[in-house]
Amino acid sequence: MSLKSLKGQHHVSAITANAQKNYEFYTQTLGMRLVKKSVNQDDTSVYHLFYADERGNPGTDLTFFEIPNAGQTHHGTNSISTISLRVANDASLLYWKQRFDQYGVDHDDISHTTGRAVLSFRDFEGQRLSLVSDEGNTGVKGGSPWNKSPIPAEHGILGLGPVTLTVYRPELTANVLTDLLGYREVRSYPALVQGQSEIRVFETGEGGTGAEIHLEGRKDLPSERPGRGSVHHVALRVEDTDELNKWVELITQAGLPNSGFVERYYFRSLYFRDPNGILFELATDGPGFENDESFEHLGETLALPPYLENQRERIEANLKPLPTEQ
Q: Which residues belong to any copy of the VOC domain (predicted)?
């Protein structure tokens, strides 16, 4: 069976306990655009919010499920431990450091990781994020910041950068990345904690900032107890539905627990877990977020896929209003 390479990050989905504060932080502080206000299609009682570049191009989406009673996250292994967001160059990180100081955002100093300038920070729920410089990137291109963002265009967030997985048995995840998903192991860098193994870097497709997974092995931590401020899953880009159907067959043949083909309306998906419990999604590049809203009004009203539209009245009655006119 002939398969095209995965194209890099598609989106990352995380958990928040407060949709209103989440919306304010990611649109006003970080300047991302809310391109879709919808619901979790598997639990329509909670919001699913999509932040991205100007039109939600694949590889730029950071999404959140609102779970109001979510407890505190206890960090540990078998988790998606860091999300990174791309900015144009090293100078942008200086702008962001000043902005974080101004807005009281918890952050570290600018550092360099595997040749890139990085600014690590946390949101109001402790979600672990970093801004990574795209300076010198020759791989997957970033997106285009929204022109109504409060952030100057030259410093705007361009999309998703490398995603870090922290696992107890790294070789098992490495095997899934290389033998099953077709990633290439390209380099490594020193562990963040003394006594632990090096962090390994894998890339796919065109490579570069938007197509890397960093794999951290840790023997000194328990398994993570997820809650608000944790990551639910990472989604990887598949070109189209025909390719996705091939991946369904391949993942099933490999014996990994999986969802089979899932219709999400804005894209089509396959979910599966690796032996360390990491939840991966493979998602198609299209159809995209302008199926049901115009570019000018993305994210302003509650969007429901056609197969949920007949439940709109009940769904809206169970949701706390979230004003998002932009």
A: 8-134, 159-285
Q: Give the per-residue pLDDT at 1.
A: 72
Taking the C-alpha atoms of residue 55 and residue 276, their distance in angstroms, rounded to an integer, is: 34
Strand, coil or helix: what is 10? strand
Task: Look at residues 93, 137, 84, 151 and name the one whose alpha carbon lies nearest to residue 117.
Answer: 93
Side-chain-side CA neighbours of residue 301 (13 Å): 11
- The answer on pLDDT for 326 being more than 70 is no
Q: Edge-to-edge strand order for the sheet containing 159-167? A: 107-113, 116-122, 128-133, 79-87, 159-167, 212-217, 199-203, 184-189
Q: What angle do CA 273, 61, 209 make, to 5 degrees?
A: 80
Q: In terms of residues, how long is the chain?
A: 326
Out of 3.10.450.50, 3.60.20.10, 3.10.180.10, 3.40.50.720, select the CATH number for domain 9-317.
3.10.180.10
User: Which residues are within 8 A (CB) of 179 and not within 5 positions of it... i.e. 6 or more apart?
Assistant: none
Contact 11, 61 (CB under 8 A): yes
Percent of the chain with pLDDT over 90: 97
